[in-house]
Amino acid sequence: MAIPAAAENHPRSESPFERLGAVCRERGPKDLATRLFALQAWLAEDLGAVEAQLATLPRAGSVANTGAGHQLDLGGKLLRPMCVALAARLGIGFGDRARELAVAAELMHNATLLHDDVIDQAELRRGAPAARAVYGNAISVLAGDWLLIEALQRIHRSADRALLGLALDTIDKMVAAEAVQLENRGRVNLNRADYYGIITGKTAALFRWAMFAGASAGGLASHHQTALERFGLELGVAFQLADDLLDVTGDPAVTGKAAFADLREGRINYPVLLTLERDRSLCKQVERRLGRKTGESLPAALSSRLHLQLVATGALEECRGLARAYAEEAVACLSSLPAGPARSALATLAAVAADRDS
Amino acid sequence: MAIPAAAENHPRSESPFERLGAVCRERGPKDLATRLFALQAWLAEDLGAVEAQLATLPRAGSVANTGAGHQLDLGGKLLRPMCVALAARLGIGFGDRARELAVAAELMHNATLLHDDVIDQAELRRGAPAARAVYGNAISVLAGDWLLIEALQRIHRSADRALLGLALDTIDKMVAAEAVQLENRGRVNLNRADYYGIITGKTAALFRWAMFAGASAGGLASHHQTALERFGLELGVAFQLADDLLDVTGDPAVTGKAAFADLREGRINYPVLLTLERDRSLCKQVERRLGRKTGESLPAALSSRLHLQLVATGALEECRGLARAYAEEAVACLSSLPAGPARSALATLAAVAADRDS
Prior knowledge:
2 copies of one chain form a homodimer.
Chain A: H1 16-25, H2 30-56, H3 63-73, H4 79-89, H5 96-120, E1 124-125, E2 128-129, H6 131-135, H7 137-158, H8 161-183, H9 192-217, H10 222-249, H11 252-255, H12 261-264, H13 270-278, H14 281-290, H15 300-312, H16 315-332, H17 341-355
Antiparallel strand pairs in A: 1-2
Helix pairs in contact in A: 1-2, 2-4, 2-5, 2-17, 3-7, 4-5, 4-9, 4-17, 5-7, 5-8, 5-9, 8-9, 9-10, 10-16, 10-17, 13-16, 16-17
């Protein structure tokens, strides 16, 4: 399977749409690019409102604000707010409540990133120095705590009891998954079940919540809410598998992360897991690397051999196939929902999630 | 003013009552010891139920559980659960809902301790190695996140909307106060307003919430809930002032903290703040110490001079006087509440908070 060609370098000042759009402009299928373009135009106002809300959070006043502001200003793709918006638009639309929940989803995401970067001793985030690299671990811990509480306060103010309960359960799952990941740090023998457990908790749980929150704000019937929750879970897994692929094949100038950042931080991701399953002779070399200090680049010999074996063992191809299969599962969850632009947009989002190159 | 004599060393296996009781057994007023004894007998069952609940939290299964278990097993005085229980007993009593809220208060407290110890790079907690010293910062960050979510889930399951909103506001205040404290780390010119802001957020806010939670679970009228919230705030300030006194005068074998732990971690506490106001010549020496690596003991010359000047400037006496004044304010808040054993017990708690030596 061909690895997607690296796109141009897209500066962070571009909108989330421009960043996502670049994924599709330079390669096929053409249809996907056209559909993404329509999605962009359609959601511009909703996500503009989310960005405006994020901009109102104080950037100064306390070190927690400063650290959190640094993280928020790194700019993200706003995929979770996009999920909330699209789910809401399947119902009564993206009103104030949906907007608050979309903001909360983005804040929960950034809160966990702040803590994850402390845990992983990460230096880079979205191509720029991570908050902890600029302000230190202490400030990042507090900044993460603050954003988490900000998110929960917004959900509390704007939502019903069930949604807040599910938000708490979601964060609980994210923390548990991060703990399992931390336990497995430096271990070369991560199995598939552990891997799925980790990414379901770490990534998919929040996509699921975002879909449920949007469905709830959109006033959808309970069976539609359930269908969208399932969509969110499948989408989240597809998204994380694509993220793993970017880690091993992406252009650091486009992804904003160093190549093999997962291995550098002691983590085995899915394409590497598959490669090691199929070429046991690589295990020793990788194990030696995992035992070294977090953050160091990979020895050139290991990096070259991994690049070769990721292709030769079919690991990349299988990982991309799996990402697409999850995206298709996600799309299948939409079948019971009313056809229309919001449903098409969700299908586009799933396709992009599995095939993105940034 | 005489500094309380050091009590015997009380091993951590003693109950919270035994730990608190020791404060009063060996010094006056006799009346206080008698009242505390009655309080102990009265609350034994309630706090036993809280401890039993805390014991059911998993200690293994994930590194987050292990880290949190270490923190919980260090044993605390259970003052916040005690507040919930006493407030509830002013009304319909300490039922299941009150117990869950009491557990939540203790979990919130321990969650913030886990993160605070990461922020302060603390080595000791309650006379034993802090969780971060045993398991590292990464696990302590996750363990704190987990306990926080555990606490919020319990409040969500057992309480009304308002109580959860207030819990979120309380944590928000605690995080903000910790941020101000962190900003002031290493600064010798902390002023009284900053100090009060910090301890109100860091300590008193959670006592306030605990009183409100107990009052709510006890079904008290709204004006009684408000009176108890005020009691909690005043009690919290008294408690923190006494904590500051223990930091500069306490016996490490009793308090479980190194002498001058605050200064060692870059913090100016209230007795030191007063001493520096009155002996400006000490500022330079203290400033030099604050600029050094966190955790190092104080040079003997500085430690001796501080001990002398804390007494000579009247700082200790004023700090103890202030702690007692806050305790009296707290007791005054109780005047509108129905007289009886619960009200007397709260008054005892306030007196002990201001005058404890462990």
